[in-house]
Every structure is written in C-alpha cells, then in structure tokens.
Description:
The protein is 28% helix and 24% strand. The protein has helices spanning 3-11, 24-30, 49-56, 69-78, 116-126, 152-159, and strands spanning 40-43, 62-66, 87-89, 99-105, 127-138, 164-170, 182-188. A seven-stranded mixed beta sheet has the order 3-2-1-4-5-7-6, with helices on both faces. Strand 4, helix 5 (116-126) and strand 5 form a beta-alpha-beta unit. The longest helix has 11 residues, at 116-126. It is globular, with a radius of gyration of 15 Å.
Amino acid sequence: MDVNYWSLRYQKEQTGWDIGEASRPLVQLFKGFEDKEAKILIPGCGNAYEAEYLFNEGYQNVHLIDIAKEPLNDFIKRNPNFPPDQVLLGDFFKHIGSYDIIVEQTFFCAINPKLRSVYVDKCHELLNHEGRILGVLFNRDFEGGPPFGGNINQYESLFKQKFSNVKFEYSKYSIEPRSGSEVEFFCEK
C-alpha cells in the first residue's frame, strides 16, 4: 500500500473510514487539552477533520502529514486560513520533527500490522521528553485489510515497550457503526 494505492482510493471516493467530521471519541479526548500552544502531529491525517476541529478551537500549532495529496488538497480548500507550512505531504516513517502530542485516528489500522512496532518507535522518536500519544483504535478483527484490526491486549503490549502510563478504555462516544469496537488510548513518553 503505497502512495498510488491511497491516492486512487481518494480519487475513486473509496474512503469508508471517512465519517465527514472529527471523531467523536477524539473530540472528547481533546476537551482534556489545556495547552493551546502544544505542538500537535496527526499522522496519516486523511481529510483531517480532527485538525480542523482543533484549529477552530484555537490550537494554532497543529501539523498534518499524509502520503496522499488528495485529502491534503481538500483540507486546504476547506480551511484556507490554516498555515500551509503545517500541511505536510510525505511519509510519516521518514518524517523528522518534535511534537508534544501525536493524535492517532485511522492511521494505525491502515498500515500493515508488521509496521506497528516501527510506528510505535517512530511516535516515541517524534515526541518531546514529556510528550504523549492519544487516539482511537479498533478493538476488533477485520477480514483482509485495510483496515487491519487488533485487540487491547496486543496494543497494550506494543505501546508499553516504549511508553508509560498506557491506558485503554472502550469509547462511549463512538458513532453507531463503530459502537462497541473503538477504544480510546493514552500513553506518555
């Protein structure tokens, strides 16, 4: 699954993961944010409704990265006041930077499960000393993929290799099609 695969999915509007708004579980997690100056990264951001939400709430240091240009172009059209230098076309695994928070929403389930430990390592590398990662993961299996599923035990084992204060809980805020299969998580560096 390379840039051509994802670009084609957007061009053909085969984006079943896109709910057309910020993820409700993430919006609830965002309500716990206090530092509007925090430097935030959303990897594999897609149409980046979460970035739009945060930006409209006054967070000015939100950065997006995606391998496909189509969703980034759509985001820029929807959000002409968003700083263009914070919209990054590129490969998350090759990205260089330093962030306070990484927000996970549908990227983890889109990558090959063999890359999950590399993903955790990269998040750890990109986060500042007291940085944290938070997001929503699927606690269920999928046939084929993407998306690729998993379960809380697998995720805890994986994230605890690099992070502390690892917490997972079932989301009470999922949209109906995802109800009972989404877990919110939080980890600290």
